[in-house]
Amino acid sequence: MNKQVNISQERIIELYGDYLLNEGERPKNVYAFAKEHNFEEQEFYHYFSGFEQIEREIPDHIFKKSLELASEVNYSQEITTKEKLLNVYYIFFENLTMNRSLVLAILGSGKINSIKTLQTLRKTHREFVMTLDFKEWEMIDNAKESIRDFNEKTRQEALWFHLVGAIEFWKKDTSPDFEKTDIFIEKTIDTGFEFLDNESLRKVFDLGKFLWKENFR
């Protein structure tokens, strides 16, 4: 009889990621997954309600780790709001790339599945945006008048769907070291949400608003 192991939230995420990549599909059920890794099924439910929740947790977990790393450089008062945002995003996308096979597996190829899987990250991202100072946000100053007039909640939504658009861009990026994604992030932020005038990204924005309204509120 195999010895029972101590299990944690992070360990379950790690084991699930390994299984998904090696087998190319989800485990048959929680019982089989727990048994294979020598812990009780009940312990799984201390942390997750099911496999879908794990998949929603993975991008959020990566973003939170990125926030921790970025805090080491973002603490300075001399860092502008734009620089703080870019520092977090660059680290986040570097960490996404380090886990690209897993992230692509859980996000899938379609935008609808991506947005559903990113819902846990959405809350963390909103909390991060709330820490930024809009008053000295030069990217807002560069934006069109209609965007400068956004209230705080709408700006949070705009930034969220900008991040979703960047993730969609990264998913399809074939450049070395995904360097085009970094350029995309910086250029769209520098031009003051010009991405909202981009047809394909506007569709992502509109789709996200629709899905959130219909399914997640």
Class of secondary structure makeup: mainly alpha
Mean pLDDT across every amino acid position: 81
SSE string? HHHHHHHHHHHHH
Largest sheet: none
* Secondary structure: helix percent: over 70%
Strand content: under 5%
- CA-based shape: globular
Number of helices: 13
Would you report the number of β strands?
0
Uncertain residue ranges: 193-198, 210-217
Distance between the termini: 47 Å
Radius of gyration (Å): 19 Å
Explain what you see.
The chain is an all-alpha fold. Helix content is 71%, strand content 0%. The chain is built from 13 helices and no strands. The N and C termini lie far apart (47 Å). Residues 193-198 and 210-217 have low confidence and may be disordered.
Summarize the structure.
This protein is mostly helical and 217 residues long. Helices cover 71% and strands 0% of the residues.
Using brief descriptors, characterize the structure shown.
217 residues; mainly alpha; 71% helix; 0% strand; disordered C terminus
Strands, helices and their partners?
Layout: H1 9-23, H2 30-36, H3 41-44, H4 51-74, H5 81-98, H6 100-107, H7 111-117, H8 119-129, H9 138-141, H10 145-148, H11 152-172, H12 179-190, H13 199-216
